[in-house]
Amino acid sequence: MEPDEQDERATTGTPPAVHLDGITKRFPGVIANDDVDLEVERGTIHALVGENGAGKTTLMNVLYGLYEPTEGTVRIDGEPQTFDDPGDAMDVGIGMIHQHFMLVDTMTVAENVVLGDEPTKWGGIVTDRERANRETQALADRYGLEVEPTELIEEISVGEQQRVEILKTLYRGADILILDEPTAVLTPQEVQSLFGILRELIAEGKTIIFITHKLGEALEVADEISVLRKGKLVGTVDAETATREELARMMVGRDVLLEVDKPAASRGDLVLDVEAVTIEDDRGVVAADSVSFGVHQGEVFGIAGVDGNGQSELIEAITGLRKPTDGTITFDGRDITTDSRRSRVSAGMAYVAEDRQKRSLVMEYELQRNGLLGRQHLRPFSDGRLIDWGATGEYVDDIIEEYDVRPADPTAKAHSFSGGNQQKFIVGREFERDPSLVIASQPTRGVDIGSIEFIHNRLLELRSDGKAVLLVSSKLDEVTQLSDRLGVMHDGEIIAVVDPDEVTEEELGLLMAGERPDNLDVDGARVRRSSV
Amino acid sequence: MKAPSVTRRQGLLIGGILFGLITLGLLIDGGGQLIGDVAGVFSVSYLASAIRLTVPIAFAAMGGIFAEKTGVINIGLEGLLIIGAFGAVASLYALSATPIGANIWLAFVLAIVASTIVALLFAIVCIEFKADQIIAGLAVWLIALGFAPFASIIIWRRTSSPSVGTFSTISIPGLSALPSIGPLFEATPPVFLLALAVPFSWYLLNRTTFGMWIEASGEDPKSLDTAGVDVRKVRYAGVLLSGVYCGIGGAGLALNTGQFVGSGDTMIDGRGWIGLTAYLIGNYNPVGAFLASFLFAGLEALQLQLQQIAGYDVSSTLVGIIPYVAVLIVLTFVGRTRMPSAAGEHYDSDE
């Protein structure tokens, strides 16, 4: 099964910009990287793909000087280097753009760009803001990165913030840029503009290493793609000739079904009816404005949108974690707008929360007790006064087996599991409740590709069983593939409900950005509630 | 950093109006005589005494800003003021064999050193050992509250010191000769230091590179760390500055009075806590914090003087709560204060 596409590059005169030579990184009890050889040519984009926990980030942290390799050598332009800290890596021109932006929200674009390396005046004490603004602008112009140096970070979009991150590394003279999952938070349009910037950068002679688990993106933007699995380099392939299936097989080690095979929907009764619901966020700002939609038995209703457009608040209102200021929510024909969370759970509402560590698990509890959460007062787990640990144990063992949670240890604490396994456990706990409505918010966020496939199939099984499924995801391919109807949220409104089989990715992207394309039926927005 | 928001200014304005309202309230059944008496309270000398009372509060408040803006919440300001006050008087007492002139400055510096050392211990506990900042801050207060009177008893056999001498008043040539506002330019050195410290602190926070690091350290330490600046050092600097400022504030108060009083809540008497409130009202802006401190000090001076108006049967306890009631009211009106995002959180660079 091991593919054998190890790149046989003819030796050329110039050494590669980055050469990771036999890198092994061991942590106590774990080998994160096992004898990895990676060469990246100057002026190219090199994608590094692999599942969560495959060792991508560890490898890059070795390159970036955060970790010292246990064995092996890092060569930059042929010269062996040892880095004690990221500062050393920066000195030889390596810059890292982190997945979570390293920006100070309350400071301006230019201040963030120069932070730690400020132009000063008056004997080096006072920051020369004018020069900082000027230099930021000059750098931005040179590489085609549109930013306004004097704007505050908290006031600009995520796409702009990413450009500021790139500017930060360029300002420090980076020649080799490492981008860690840079597209996770971007709209499709922003992704395209990022790719434009990356191409601009390599045209200027920069070298880019692009960490991702989205195969499509790797194929689109990279020159070469290296695949890591379980800490080992499986191979390096040419992006021109590689295919998604081939890459997925290299990543997982077996064939993966990339397209979801979805049987036709058989829509039944209306289960959830949300009518003109208005919700305020924690700051008292309207987060969802008069939102209406319905979810039927046997269908998946998807909600797409860039994070932070009111999806979280909407879901919190439906699940009973937040009180709407206006509107009604009806569940199985009963008005539940003011019902408690507990009565909603008892009525058959299952909820896979977007932040699993905050909402779904007690990290310090073992799986056994986590499996009980939410139903500690219901039979067969409790007779109303005492918990029946025997029944709980059996139930948890079933989930672990059924949902392939690894390691299969009900006495291990939640925090000792990987994100994917935590999620599989939560999905199991919620789905096995025999719910009539399943609300799944970002169910595959931070989950590896094998588990994603599993969770998707389970969602579709629920649908076949005649359950109503409400799916919120910022992953476009996920919502379009799974949903029967798809509502797009922007700025607190569902601006259109579309048929995912007919809408194009471009149209969705525009909708997510708040623009309704001309060719899209405007009625799509008006008949939001195709229920009734 | 942004200037105080409009609501904040309105808050301070409301506080100002309160001055008037409280005065009015006292007038209701007082008759003309009281109006005259109370009106007599507001004079240039009243203003001068209000500014003198502002010194410990405002220094504590500005010190608190430096610490908290780097991400370390220092609620031990009260304790540091006590150490500053005690340190100044004890030093001056020990040095008093020689003439007072230069020694009072030496005592002043020693008090600052003492307060800064305590702040350093607090910083080590919070930064190196990742102690809970609130508990460590309470410990600073409680230790100081116990230590200063205890040491007083050892040195002077009672909780308070004898009179050891005060700063002499400095007059600014020319300005102090001005009609009516002249007395404002005749004050002790700590008052002039305060006048310098407010703009200095504002400038340090808002214009210097170090100020930028302070803000980054409190808002997003990881960003600062990735940018190659040592977050620990910035946080130490912030906490040590709070020690220096509280040293000045405490010593300034004690050396204006000329004595350390260790009974009850000591002579500091909650001024550190008021300072904490003052910088929250001032939204971490030294100028705003100064104005809020001045407001409280003004109310304090007012109640002191009101108590001295003879012949009215108003309980002094009732008059004494005026500043605190005012704090509550102003806090209600002042709107939301934006805390530094990472305040109170430990930062571990090897994560």
From TrEMBL, chain A:
Protein's name in the database: ABC transporter ATP-binding protein
Domain of life: Archaea
GO MF entries: ATP binding; ATP hydrolysis activity
Pfam family, one: ABC_tran
One cellular component (GO) term of this entry: plasma membrane
Organism of derivation: Natronosalvus hydrolyticus
Cellular localisation: Cell membrane
Start and end residues of each ABC transporter domain: 18-255, 272-516
Keywords: ATP-binding, Cell membrane, Membrane, Nucleotide-binding, Repeat, Translocase, Transport
PANTHER family assigned to the protein according to its UniProt record, in alphabetical order: CARBOHYDRATE TRANSPORT ATP-BINDING PROTEIN MG119-RELATED, GALACTOFURANOSE TRANSPORTER ATP-BINDING PROTEIN YTFR
Topology within the bilayer: Peripheral membrane protein
Primary residence: membrane
Listed CDD domains: ABC_Carb_Monos_I, ABC_Carb_Monos_II
TrEMBL record, chain B:
Topology class, membrane: Multi-pass membrane protein
A single Gene Ontology CC term: plasma membrane
Signal peptide residues on this chain, from the entry's feature table: none
Protein known as: ABC transporter permease
Transmembrane segments annotated in the record for this chain: 12-32, 44-67, 79-98, 104-127, 134-156, 187-205, 276-297, 309-334
Domain of life: Archaea
Keywords: Cell membrane, Membrane, Transmembrane, Transmembrane helix
Keyword Kinase attached: no
